[in-house]
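Kindly inspect this today.
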Amino acid sequence: MFGIIRPCSEHGCPSLQQAWRAHLCGLCLTLRDGQGQGARLTTNYDTLIISVLTEAQLPSASPHRTAGPCALRGFRSADVVDARAQGARLAAAVSLVLAAGRIRDQVADGDAAAGTGPAQRMLAARWEAGGARLGTGVGFDTAVLASTVDRQLDLERRAAAPAGPGGAGERPITLLDLTGPAEEAVSAAFAHTAVLSGLPGNAAALAEAGRFFGRVAHLLDAVADQDDDDARGAFNPLTATGTTLAEARRLCDDAVHGLALSLREAELAERHLVDVLLGTEVRRAVERTFRERSEAASYERPGWIRKSAAGVATFLTCGMWRPRWSRRKGLPCDKRCYLRNADCCSCCDCCSCCD
């Protein structure tokens, strides 16, 4: 998933930063315990919301513990969600399966480094199997996630096919057709947090919230990657469907509004962090993505940069990696790391801890 979720600054809102970090580090350590050290590379900001949602509905079902020092925390110990927490294990399962799907997608697009395709497919298979095992442990069938990659590739093939006999078929593939697999995958994961929390009445509202979150994630990914995709002749949902940036922005804004309405219907024991991550941060992600796209259009980018597994992993885990054209490329870590860059008091209009 696109990196929508960012934390509040630890200097601006310590309680939110600590709560967010407890889920991020808990997810990372759950991946390690469940699949080995290498699986920690699949940690990302967006899937930790599954752990957050589970705890928000039933705090007692999300035990915490004190973790030892870690380089990404400045070699400090920290309070983290324990790997026994079902929400953390569900988040880990989703992280592994989605990361496996991303690898398969990159191989299919020809993004894998020369000669690494077979090795990457083997890694994807291991992660997918590990995710399935973790999912089974919390009663979640990850097949709905794994199947999204195949469905996505099929939709992209049909959208890119020429019209007419043997082409895309009777009805053209629309942009919302292309976001459908991501929507369904996130919807299923969000809804299962209600099952884990013993609040089945929340399932419908959270399923709807997941659909909107998945739509926003897919759209923002398409907007951010369009220039690169077009430059190398790769598939991009906006280009393939002839969708303008204005229309993409309208769809994003509608989805953000729908996400907020859906969350209001969910019964949450503690909703502060949920509202910040799925409310404030999602809105900011939309603003940031379209702003950066506009800024990028004002100057010429260098040639397309091929993504590396290490670069993507570093970007997802701490935000330190920046592409060559980023205005934060080469700046000190406190200027380019997401853990320190957010300004809580400008984003958390719902909290009083910044006062």
In short: The chain has one domain: 14-347. The beta strands are 64-70, 76-81.
